[in-house]
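quick one
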Amino acid sequence: MPANRVRPSPGVSGVGRTIPAVRLTKVPSTRRRPTSLATRVANNAALLRFLARPLRRFAPVLSIGRVVVVTRHADVVDVLERDEDFTIAEVNAATMDRIDGPFILGMDRSERYTRERAILQTCVHPSDGERIREFVTATARELVRATAARGRIDVVQDLVRPAATRLVASYFGVPGPDEATMMRWMRILFWEAFMNSGGDLTVRRAGAQAADELHAHVDDLITAGRAELDRGQQVPDTVLMRLIKAQDDPATRLSDEAVRRNICGVIVGAVDTTNKATAQIIDQLLRDEGALRGAQRAARDGDMQAVAQYSFEALRFQPLNPVLVRHVARDTVIADGTRHRRSVSSGGTVYAAVLPAMFDGAVFGDPNTFRHDRQPAADLNFGHGMHSCFGRYVNHIQIPELVAALLRCDGLRRAPGRQGRLEFEGPFPDRLLVEVVDGPVVARGRV
Ligand code: HEM
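structure w/ protoporphyrin IX containing FE:
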């Protein structure tokens, strides 16, 4: 048996049907990996905000050797919009191709990018928002209720990771062989694809193994889905099934392999991103009594628009991606026409520093103050330009609903001592313990 060969598991019950048996093995644990200094710094948003302040003020386009760091809002937006000067393939494609096959987040402007992103977009339907909201609201309430009775909730393990994994099953159409395996696959694959720039070998090996296992699993789902459609059976209306149905039309036809790499690319970006964003939002709200109170009021009033505003303002203080990385594809100039204009040479790397850009006083008045009603909102949380987040429509519903489920619990507060601190496994929040005296109340106007 080759090293990455996996052992069979019994078939499991998924969303509305039995998922074929998968060959399942345990991806090696990365739990006890020592966290590198670079990762610890990257996880410390307060430190990054502090370090970024003088940069934005005195050296807004800082060049150190082949690396350029851009910290003002206008320049970050400009870099992300000039996707032919500042490209992404050199940053993401090699890893993505190795573990999952080509995916839009590793592609530059091209016919293939446009076609595949457009096909993914046809699999998002206007009514999806309501369906996502109903599912996430019910799932979050159930998860919080189940643990609130103990008086303690781990925001990461008891709520957000399982909720996001269940949405991947029910809406995107990829239930795992079991929830724990799926969460493990999603974490290690995201880590290896986007956050293993240091080339940690444990992460690399675990990522390769997880990719093999996930691919075998999703190939089985695609084969089963196609067979059900061919037999005229009723199939669940999921993004994966829509991609399979889209194969019938030459304009939207993807090969089975392309269906697999697209759905895998999408779901890998859906779980630990949501986890990281939500855990950091809760952590940030717990640091700010006034913001917490306001967000709790909004959640109890069922004002989800306001909960979303509180959430994304909190995320501005602790964003998922403090920087977005681009390759300099040709000699060009950044911040042309300003006093800080700088020439950059082809072959360099640009860090478009989203976190400092969202504290740029030229765009965000009184940037260090938490203001849930600020205009513009924290617009760079989900990227900008051609690669801006495909999952935005989900995030704007799922994240506030997860946050609201906690905010509706009586007596919500951080657990005392170390246990109440946000803990990481590598780049991902792994534990955040909060205390509650009672489970979630039903928001006004909701059933
Ligand atoms: C359901 C959840 C999610 C899905 C399905 C998803 C999917 C994606 C995809 C497919 C892309 C690439 C788009 C392209 O190249 O055209 C992307 C980009 C991005 N996503 Fe998401 N995402 C999700 C959640 C999140 C969350 C929670 C955040 C942040 C809080 C986030 C932040 C980003 C950012 C910043 C980019 C741009 C990266 C860059 O420009 O280098 N995503 N997302």
